[in-house]
Amino acid sequence: MRRIKLVISYDGSNYCGWQVQPNGISIQSTLQKAIEDLVGGGIMLTGASRTDSGVHALGQVAVFDTDRNIPAWQFAGAINQRLPKDIVIQESVEVSGEFHPRYCDSVKTYQYKILNRHRALPKERFYSYFVPRKVNLDDMKKAAAYICGTHDFHNFCSQRSNVQSTVRTIYSCDIDKENDFILLTVTGNGFLYNMVRIITGTLLNIGYGHKKSEHIKEMLEEKERKIAGPTAPAHGLTLVEIKYSNKISIP
Fold this sequence. Notes:
Helices cover 21% and strands 30% of the residues. By secondary structure, the protein is α+β, with helices and mostly antiparallel strands. It folds into two domains: 2-103, Alpha-Beta Plaits (2-Layer Sandwich), CATH 3.30.70; 106-240, Pseudouridine synthase I, catalytic domain, C-terminal subdomain (Alpha-Beta Plaits), CATH 3.30.70.660. It is globular, with a radius of gyration of 19 Å. The two termini are 16 Å apart. The mean pLDDT is 93.
């Protein structure tokens, strides 16, 4: 058996999220069907991040095992021919059978996109969170700096999270303004359920003046979810990239 690693981009607008669901069409189920059509049998596709309904991706990672003797790089094009236009395999490579996209050490980057102007833009309605209010970017940037480092992010995840530890390390949390867009880019060694969306909602509350920048420290230390901000909508979030050790690939 060979293990094939895929790098996948998708527009999550028309899907119920990454994971197979009984009540809707998922990214995972759509990909599995396309791959099975290619290899001629059942496969199990395992993804790195279980993105929610409406969340997008530029660099989602997934693997499947197959005994088909197709050059690894050709899987991408062959699968793409069987996919709808809102899902595209960017790369396919063969990796070690020990590689697991969720459990191998990785660095993940997410970006949240906020449209900050007086009127909404229809073409952005599925790809950014429309915020017509004025926000203080300097206060948001000061608050974002407190997010960096190793912390217990218990207050920055959904109560639906089922993990052994809520401690994560954030390497960078940057806020940039590009024309009418505020871009929050967060890189870390892992993320909890809804973590980036709650960070976004919390930073926006600070930008509105509801909280001071330094209150982030209290939010990280307290143990009640309600002390942090609201969960920003899913459609503004994109999984940008997942980086692994170079040792996973087979030359």
